[in-house]
Each structure stands twice: as C-alpha cells, then as structure tokens.
Amino acid sequence: MSMIVARMQKMKSGNLVGIGNHNQRKTENHTNKEIDPSLSKLNYDLVNRTENYKRDIEKFINENKSTKRAVRKDAVLINEWIITSDKKFFENLSQEETKDFFSSAKDYFAENFGEKNIRYATVHLDESTPHMHMGIVPFDKDNKLSAKRVFNRETLRDIQENLPKYLQEKGFDIKRGIEGSDRKNLTVPEFKEMKKEQKEIERQIDRRKNELVNLTNEKPKKISSKSINAKYEMKTIDKPTGKKLLGVPLTEKKKVKTGNIVLPEEEFLKLRKSAQQNQQLKAQMEKYLTTDLAKENRELRKKNEVVKNKYSDLIESFNSNVKDYNELLEENISLKGRVKDLTNEIGSIYKSVKEFLKERTDDLRAFKRVFNDLVDKVKEKSPKGEFERLERKEKSREKYRGMER
C-alpha cells in the first residue's frame, strides 16, 4: 500500500509572488528541471480565488480579519500544503480517479480549516509525480490570523493520522507513513543521493531483464491443432436403438472415437522435435537461474525493494524536518520581536527613573550618586543587562561632549 505525502510550508508576504509564479506556471524558464512545459496544459485548479497571490491573499486577510490591528510584516499569510504519493499509486488510478483523490484531500482540509480559507488548490501533472499545491489562510475560529495556533504540533499530528483514514473511506488504497520508526534524518543532498541510487538499481534490473530475454534466440514454438494434419482414430460399434424385434433388442452400427489420434509420421517428427527444443530451453532456463547473473538479478530486486521502502520513509522524515525547521524559525522570529519590545521597555524605564529622580533632587551630585546607586543595585540582580548597557552608553556620550567643549 502506498503512503500519503502531506507536506506543509509557511508562506509570508515576500514568498507569495514566487510561489504564485511557480504554481500558475507564469514563467517559461523553470529552475525545477522535472517540469515538462509541454504537459503544463494538463494542470488544473480545484480552487482558484487568486489571480495575483500577494495582492488577492492580502486583500482577503484584511477584509476578513476580526482585529483592527495591522498584520505584522513577518506574519505567515499562507500555509501551503503539498499533497502527493508515489508513482505506483497514481499509475493504478485513471485521470478521473486522480482528480477525485486530490478533490477528496482538499475536502478534508475544507471541513477542518474552512472552505473559504482555501485560496488556491492547483494540481500539477507536468512533473514526474502528480501533486497538489493547496494554500490555506491560517484564520482561527475567531478569524484571527495565527499559523502557530491553527497548525500547531498536535494539529499536524492529527492531519498525518486522519487524512489517510479519510481518503481510505473514500476508497483510496493509501496509508500514513511509518509512525515513530527508527530512521536516520538525512540532509537534502543525502536525500537526493538516495533517489539517484534507486534509479540506478532500477536501470540495472531493466538491463538484467534484457539479458534474460536475449539469452536465447530460440523461442518455444506454438503448435495449433489446425496446423497439424491429425485425425481421430475411429471404431465401429453396435449401439442399441432401444427397439425390439420379436423380443430381440435391435442395434445399429455407429462410429465413435477411440481416444487415440492418428497423424502422419512427418507431423509426429515435427511434434517430437518441438518438444525436444522446449525441453532444451527449459534446461537452459533452469541452468541460467543457478548462475551468478540470475542471483545478482534477484539480489538487485530485493535491494530495490529495500530502497523503495527507505525512500517512502525518508519522504516523511524530510517533510517532518522541514516542518520542524519552519516552526523553529517562526518561534525565533517571534522571540526576536519580543526581545526588541522588552529592550525598548527597559530603555523607557531607565529614562523615566532618571527623569523622576532628577525632578525631585536639587543637588546634581546627590542625584548622580542616588542614580548610580540604583543602577548598581539593578546590576547586582542582572549583571551585563540593559541598564548597564544604557549607563555605559550615556557615560560615553557625556565624555564625548566634554571633549568637544
């Protein structure tokens, strides 16, 4: 059974132009070499509410957010989900079934995160594996913009668990990735190297298949009954008619098959030669199956299966790493903003305390002594803190002004 791949990326205002150009194929020169422009006409939209990603998404947010506060410049405006699976999964689906698969995945997110919040859902069929890009504005139930609350860790775990179940109920043979498996987290180059290794193994298997086909030019000859000048052997028997004459049962002469077949000697020799050839081919095949070539072919098949399983696991692991990285990045940005706010607040307290003491002290020397004592007290509780930095900065300015005078 194939595994679902559901990967989320956080998009801020600065990301929307680029992702819009990619999803809507607005440029002809693609950095992604897997895109086949001749197949781009096969792509389609399940949801298309954005002619211009940046303009239309920002407009939707401003018109629907419940607060009057301006949206932060570094806020996540779109959580883009990429939905796909492996090639084998899509090879077993018709075009209509593929569309139903992506439509069902979109419905799951609409039911859980709001239909109107899905601003686009674009299916790409012009790359090696069909996949869907779906953008969701992270509005909570109160229409407050917060990617951190809407797609928290618990929600992301629920999606990985419940999305495949939802699709199974819709009739799709798909499952979630291996949960809690003991696997190595690969870097992007290592991940790509694993994909190259799988392709090389598949090429070796194809080469071995061709060697097996070319092992002999002779193929078993198919013999049809029409091509053989054969006849059934017949015999004459007395068959009862079911009637009697003067009490004696009557019979009639009738020809029936004996179960034997009569054929000319020439045809018999042809059949015997064909049987001998088939036996020779069978012996050659059995001999081949014991050779190193055949053993290597079987080993390659096993190795390819292992790599395919690792590849599926690594997709999920890679997506999980991307998700964790994005969350840590978001948290880091938030903490930086908080630190900046606290720094400004401490600076304001520093100035306010200084002005407060200065207004209530006529003696300049007494003021400086009291203020310095206050700063020293704060430094005891918080060495190398903001108060100390501001004091050093101010003393440096006073020294500089004194030098100018």
Highlighted features:
55% helix; alpha+beta; BirA Bifunctional Protein, domain 2; 5-stranded antiparallel sheet
Description of the molecule:
This protein is an alpha+beta fold and 405 residues long. Among the domains are: 2-177, BirA Bifunctional Protein, domain 2; 337-404. 55% of the residues lie in helices and 17% in strands. Strands 2-4-6-5-3 form a five-stranded antiparallel sheet, with helices on both faces. Strand 8 (231-245) and strand 9 form a beta hairpin. Helix 7 packs antiparallel against helix 9 (292-359). The longest helix is centred in the last third of the chain and has 68 residues, at 292-359. The protein is elongated, with a radius of gyration of 40 Å. Mean pLDDT is 79; it is low at 180-188.
Order of helices and strands: EEHEHEHHEEHHEHEEHHHH
CATH architecture assignment name of the domain at 2-177? 2-Layer Sandwich
Runs in which pLDDT lies below 50 for 5 or more consecutive residues are 180-188
Helix amount, in percent? 55-70%
Task: Count up the helices.
Answer: 11
Radius of gyration: 40 Å
Largest sheet: 5 strands, antiparallel
**Inertia-based shape:** elongated
**Mean pLDDT score:** 79
The helix/strand class is: alpha+beta
Quick one: how many beta strands? 9
Percent strand? 15-25%
> Kindly, what is the distance between the CA atoms of the first and last residues, rounded to a whole number of angstroms?
83 Å
Numbering strands along the chain, what is their spatial order in the largest sheet? 2-4-6-5-3
- In CATH, the topology of the domain at 2-177 is named BirA Bifunctional Protein, domain 2
**CATH C-level of the domain at 2-177:** Alpha Beta
